[in-house]
Amino acid sequence: MSYRAPVEEMAFTLRHVAGLDAVLAHSGAEIGPDDALAILEEAGRFASNVIAPLNRIGDRHGTLFSDGTVTTAPGWVSAYRAFVEGGWNGVLAAPDYGGQGLPHLIAAACTEMWNGANLAFGLCPLLTAGGIEALAAHGSDDLKGRYLEKLISGEWTATMNLTEPQAGSDLSALRTRAEPNSDGSYRITGAKIYITYGEHDLADNICHLVLARLKDAPAGTRGISLFLVPKVLPDGRRNDLRCSGIEHKLGIHASPTCSMAFGDAGGATGWLIGEENRGLACMFTMMNSARLNVGLQGVGVAEAAYQKALGYARERRQGRAPGSPEPVSAIVAHADIQRMLLTMKAYTAAARGICYLTAQALDAAHGPEGKAAHDRASLLTPVAKAFSTDIANEVTSLGVQIHGGMGFVEETGAAQLMRDARILGIYEGTNGIQAIDLVTRKLPLAGGTTVGAQIAAMRRVAEGLLKDGAPGFGLAAPRLREGIGSLDRATSFLLKALASNRPQDALPGATPYLRLFGLVQGAACLATAGLAASAALKAGETDPAQAARIALARFFAENLLPAAGGLEQAILTGGDFADDPAFALAG
Amino acid sequence: MSYRAPVEEMAFTLRHVAGLDAVLAHSGAEIGPDDALAILEEAGRFASNVIAPLNRIGDRHGTLFSDGTVTTAPGWVSAYRAFVEGGWNGVLAAPDYGGQGLPHLIAAACTEMWNGANLAFGLCPLLTAGGIEALAAHGSDDLKGRYLEKLISGEWTATMNLTEPQAGSDLSALRTRAEPNSDGSYRITGAKIYITYGEHDLADNICHLVLARLKDAPAGTRGISLFLVPKVLPDGRRNDLRCSGIEHKLGIHASPTCSMAFGDAGGATGWLIGEENRGLACMFTMMNSARLNVGLQGVGVAEAAYQKALGYARERRQGRAPGSPEPVSAIVAHADIQRMLLTMKAYTAAARGICYLTAQALDAAHGPEGKAAHDRASLLTPVAKAFSTDIANEVTSLGVQIHGGMGFVEETGAAQLMRDARILGIYEGTNGIQAIDLVTRKLPLAGGTTVGAQIAAMRRVAEGLLKDGAPGFGLAAPRLREGIGSLDRATSFLLKALASNRPQDALPGATPYLRLFGLVQGAACLATAGLAASAALKAGETDPAQAARIALARFFAENLLPAAGGLEQAILTGGDFADDPAFALAG
């Protein structure tokens, strides 16, 4: 069973959880909710019909590396061309250079769809989007004039060249060098690894955004500059850079992960983006949306795994469910299978809600809310990235489990989703780094008022549940209140540790805290959707999807959210393991 | 970094958690603790030096299927021969047919080592052990005389032929047929799938244990019989059976997973094991130890992942840890990496403790304790199987995470462990089925007194912590007491639901209950080890490993065990999702 974009559920979340209508009202795009829905439906058709069928093909074929060139799997070139011709690459980008200028919220939904259909395919425009953002924010007009339009259309693609063998999470250790030429360009020399789509046959040119160090630059991250280094130079010659190999990876086989060599013949030509030694700031510009996009990859692949598992559970017949009139039941009739399916569905919906809230904050940062919304986006981004990708690992693994022995056989496709998903918690900042970012940089934002406001918003949802009183919510109201209590106390504990300059009390709890935040925020998102559904039912609507939303909010609150209390305990009283010499971990 | 058998830690757990000395005292094997340790050390050398180096080779080469034959990876034939010549295949089997007759406890430790070194290799003797057990318990003297000695030596191997395309977890749907011949043998016809080591080049003969249905047999599982169907007949001719293909799998590439065709030329010749239509009872005989062995596979691969991740974390340098004098620290100095490593180590040690306790109960069932120990083994077996393999998935995934981007590249080997581990929660009864077995069949054992006694034993450990009072235990005592309270209340709830004939209240909580049981039992095991360590320190011992055991018990109790409360909530108040029509899961 192939992925179908769940457009109705996505649209409901956009409107009733993330406030799409208000975003559209403040957006320059001048479209209404109906136009937005039409765009989503068209994107859904493209994702389901064009991109999704290439997912298994890409996994089986991988990419072919030969003598510096990379050939993608059969069908990929024409699908990517159709993607470009459909205008899908430019959904978010500003209209000045040909973008559609739609809100982050719409772009987020599209990103989820491309990646639900095919993570390896979705990665290519995801990388290009990062390049567009960095160039648009920091590039000179000349550079923008030369590159932005073709990147926005997708005729050319972009890459991020950060990692080197000795410099993964720690960019201060970079060694790639840049030297100025007399004409204002730079000569780039060095080796990069793990460059996604560093070389491929989908586009005529590839714009490498390369972090490098100028001679005499300050040590550490304050001495890093960002350069645009194109595969093909403006005069049509090949630049002095090449792909020296591709990795054999656990998943996303169709996405080439390249080692890149710059300057074998004296130096690749590049142009500075932004100021010298300010490359990291340029990178940070695009980090919020790049990390959000990886979170959306998690949502997409989790949704794909849920659909596949549900389809299988409806077909596969084994054993007789208690009370069933049939001698053999479809396995979907067994309580344990239902628990797994609902866990998959609930986590996916929760992560979707968190990601869309984050996109909404990015949009609102350009509106009247301004800085408060920007700070909210900063707060939510590590949660959107890490929670969504952590649950993507869990959900895709449950998908394998529901398939039983068939899940372990590659032919079924369930295992591919698990393999593909495994990178999401690692790249674009490991999830451990997201947790540290959340605790040490994001909680203290605006003196703690950003996180305080977010928790207050969750409390309003819990109050809404109490007020609504629909019996279908079960124990959702008290469970959400308990979860918020845990989050609140854990937040205070961490803020106090940071204020007392005791990071050693805060860092051990960073990962449990991010999970706690995601659980409670996710429960609040599902409750918000459930409340909208309840209101619709009270107003006489009869769509059965509305009752399902209430039931899903209840399932999450009663079965998954209760983990909050244990996480709180770990954060508040579990951190003494750090640097305990008894463990002799350092050897 | 390749696996090294952690013999010292295993021996400590065997003696101080699982009571090896008492087992040896009641065993017929007439060896003492020192002899046992010598055996373990020898096994550890064999696992580390002979089996482990083949793990990556096996993953890369897989097995080669051609025209009905299967060729294993380079080096596997000679390693298996060395395994047989070393007498390792017969550790557990009774001496009548050449076995060493050692206790389950010793065999369990050996099984952990073979599988820690190489899951795909360890599977072959694991399957043979199941065949030996079924044949020894139910085979006629004639059949035993013909097959048992060569199976025990390992010159011949055995398989379990259960699954058919329409019959996975649900064996009542089997279609393979058996018809009696005039000479007392049977003609077997049918097709089986997912037959591990169904064909290979490691041994001269393969004894297939095949579940099949006699003509006119009662419907369902009461009409299934078990047959021994050898690849090579006693007169040297090939039997009418063949391997018709092998699967392309997520992991354990070096272990051939075969489709088997029986009776293409009229019928394969087989011999009945046990009585007609009693095949399932014969299968159940060996299920306790087979499931325990799969649990031990989980412990082994988790240990391997921990060792690999620890080795990497000590080498890899990224970022500066707070308070570090060095500009760049080994990543093991970062709190979040420590949290992951200790989570891996603690889960692995907890699962090891549970598995060894289970093996101890199997041994004690033959001693003065008798039926109570047998029931305890039955109770603990699904926990040993499912908890150990669930944590194996989590631990191997954490192993990938610690490697960062390198973890996603197959060359590193971390990803292989995760891929290999993924089957453990599926085969030999999915973990969902283990949970249902635990709740519906094992909790009611002996009127609930079996589980009651087990919880009482955990309470004694918690009291021991209070009495010991070593500050290194931190909050272990109260956390363990809280966890036991959750387990106790959840157990009462489930027993009451079953006694009221309301399985619909019990089944939705089965999986959370198994996790809860494993967490609390695992914490009790680590606390037991910690108490023994504390006593040793008080007696003047200075081995730093003792302090590490106390610290690990604390880490588990403070950071992982607190999940117990949320699981209790899910079990007691979360089950209303089952068959809720709002979800429309059935379509």
From TrEMBL, chains A, B:
Residue ranges annotated for the Acetyl-CoA dehydrogenase-like C-terminal domain, each copy included: 472-576
Q: What family is it from?
A: Belongs to the acyl-CoA dehydrogenase family.
Domain (Acyl-CoA oxidase/dehydrogenase middle): give its ranges. 160-264
- This one is known as 3-methylmercaptopropionyl-CoA dehydrogenase
- Gene3D superfamilies recorded: Acyl-CoA dehydrogenase/oxidase, N-terminal domain (1.10.540.10), Butyryl-CoA Dehydrogenase, subunit A, domain 2 (2.40.110.10), Butyryl-CoA Dehydrogenase, subunit A, domain 3 (1.20.140.10)
Q: Where is the Acyl-CoA dehydrogenase/oxidase N-terminal domain?
A: 34-155
Q: What is the species of this protein? A: Methylorubrum aminovorans
Which keywords label this protein? Answer: FAD, Flavoprotein, Oxidoreductase
InterPro entries tied to this protein: Acyl-CoA_dh-like_C_dom (IPR025878), Acyl-CoA_Oxase/DH_mid-dom (IPR006091), Acyl-CoA_Oxase/DH_mid-dom_sf (IPR046373), AcylCo_DH-like_C (IPR036250), AcylCo_DH/oxidase_C (IPR009075), AcylCoA_DH/ox_N (IPR013786), AcylCoA_DH/ox_N_sf (IPR037069), AcylCoA_DH/oxidase_NM_dom_sf (IPR009100)
Supply the SUPFAM superfamilies for this chain. Acyl-CoA dehydrogenase C-terminal domain-like, Acyl-CoA dehydrogenase NM domain-like
Asked if Oxidoreductase is a keyword of the record, the answer is yes
User: Superkingdom of this entry's organism?
Assistant: Bacteria
Give all residue intervals belonging to the Acyl-CoA dehydrogenase/oxidase C-terminal domain: 277-438
**Could you say which cofactors this protein requires?**
FAD
